[in-house]
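We emphasize that the prediction below concerns an isolated chain of 133 residues; any contacts that depend on oligomerization or on bound cofactors are therefore not represented. The input was used exactly as deposited, without trimming of termini.
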Amino acid sequence: MRISPARIWRERGTRYRLEASRCRKCGRVYYPPKTVCPACGSRDMERIRLPERGRLLTWAVEYTVPEGFRRYAPIILGLVEFDNGARVLAPIADARPEELRRGMVVEAVLRRVYEDGNEGVIVYGVKFVPVEE
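Result of the prediction step, given as a token string:
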């Protein structure tokens, strides 16, 4: 897999800082950011930073994973909702599937996603980990 450093640089806001967009007309929040509001059609969108903590709504466990990611199996993908209504689909780390429960608090952390070969670009991304309450 080849990854362009320029593409990583362009996507750094949504990839590393959980940036979303909020419609100034109707107030809806979207992740990843949108330039036009799907709800009202407004182009008056502003960039906002999402909170670092949210609640796990649901999740799926992938046991059969692509080549290059097998050491991470099983991979858990979770749908995380924030207080402002925004939702993010992202990997869940540091947890086994049987430990997850609906509504649990999770926190965004920056983790290695993959690297392009032994001496290639290391790509990081946001994953969520359970928070002890």
